[in-house]
Amino acid sequence: MDLTKSSFFKHAVKVSFSKVDKDKSGAINPHELTLGLALLYFKLSQKVPGIADPPSLEEVENYFKSFDRNKSGDLDLEEYGEFCESWVKTKGVNLTGALITGVAIQALLLPEIANQIHINTKGTILEHVPKKVLMIGVVLISKFVFK
């Protein structure tokens, strides 16, 4: 699964570019690029937590030069998109690992937590709550805890 080919990724690139291109010149410099990547990282991590670490300014400046094809000192949207795609592919994105972890948590850990709650609440009001309802509660709570 190549996240960088998805419509979600392409939209995230456009949104992050437009947010940092404050003067609407259609180009961003290395400092704006660092902010753009941080915004892109934030947007992607909402969908896939832990997908990659945001870059440092020094990393961006070193990587920037190879994507500024016309040597203008700025990146246009196309260059920025290529930069983001390359960054995500080479800088530690582990989509498969994130998906496997998510599935494992959902399929193995959360049901066991719900089961332990059910077992350990004998004699309380929670004893009368069906296991499936406890499971839904645990899943909902996990969405806030693992955000």
Automatic annotation (TrEMBL):
InterPro entries: EF-hand-dom_pair, EF_Hand_1_Ca_BS, EF_hand_dom
Domain (EF-hand): residue spans on this chain: 8-43, 55-90
CDD domains assigned to the protein according to its UniProt record, in alphabetical order: EFh
Keyword annotations of the record: Calcium
An example molecular function term from Gene Ontology annotations: calcium ion binding
Listed name of the protein: EF-hand domain-containing protein
Originating species: Timspurckia oligopyrenoides
